[in-house]
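ESCALATION

Customer reports they have been waiting on this structure for their group meeting. Please prioritize. Original submission:
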Amino acid sequence: MKRLIILACAIIVLSGCSDEPCAPDKTSDFEIQVLDTNLYGDPVEGAWIEGGVDWDAYEVRTDANGVALLPARARGRHALIHKSGYLARAITAIEPGRYWLAAAPMRLDYVAKVSDNAIRFYPDMLLTLGHRGIYRAFTYCDTSVTELIEKSLTGTALRTTEFYGDTLWYSTHNSGIFAYSVADPLDPVHLFSLDIAGYLGAFAVRDGFIAVGDPWGYDPVRVFSYTAQGETRQVAEVDAFNVKQMDFFSHYLVILSYDAYELPAAEVRVVDLSDPADPNVVYYLEEQWARGGLIHGETVLVGPFGHSTCMPLSYTAIDLSDPGDPVYMGRKNSDCWLLAPAGDSYAVGCYCPQGSPCYHSDDLPAVLERVPGGAWETVATLSRYWCGGGSVHAPPYFVLGSCLWRLRDR
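Update from on-call: job pushed to the front of the queue and completed.
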């Protein structure tokens, strides 16, 4: 009997892994299961798992049991798990096993597809404007949209749109700036155009003056006087390049710029233009490693900060309630790359789970809510939709990925 036991042990050893520990099988596809963090640990059906880059990329989806079969090459490498309505999760080195996703606090309900970028909301009407100058008006409700008109406006390669009262202004790539009256949203009327040379992007208008910025860094910010007949005269320049956003606060021009060509850095300037011919910079801030920012009400948010991954994210906040004396408010946290304000308490952005390379965030749009202390927290998410769709939102309605959505409690 003892000899049989010894022989059996020898067979097991000889048929095993020699004197080396058994290595995981990296040549075979493998399964993972995605579960909800709720009390019951429910399977998450339809979750996407993706990883790799270019020819090595893959994407698979979980079945009704929350199970997905991943290719062998995915093992031990970075992966991202995401689904609309859940907070995406980055896995540093994915292996066979169970992974958990937490549901977002709120949800976005699909209403309908809309064309181009949202530029203005009314209580029952939505206006959009496309890159090639196609203007559309829609009525909308919780379940549908109806297109009312479509009209081609002057100019192509549109860059930035702004509303001042009932006047729609927009800049173009290199063919000037145009102004239309939309006092009747169903009949936009061309008022005038400004023949301003150069590559145009962000701009700001106040009391017969317009400041224009170059998004590519070739020209400084230029300030022009203008007339309703389209006449312009340059009155000043401000040494600010790569302009991302501008706005007037009384006679103060706030300029947010970002340079990504060398060391990433964002700059904020507040310029006193009480005498437009003699601009005076009263505030300047440079934040290295910041990757942009936005003006949200009376606050400038500079960031996010980060290099190889999106998290942890933070933004420098500057209070402009007194634009002549801005107040540095320190860093505010966010789990998203903020893109645009949405009312007083919300913003939209791209969700960036901790450890996720930034290229994975382009199709993870999110709605964020400002919490006490000035930080931003994600309240609703989408998956596999473009983060863009418009810089104008009207909570509870949002335009993300060229679709209209309604924010609701879960």
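Sent to customer with the following note: The radius of gyration is 26 Å.
Escalation resolved.
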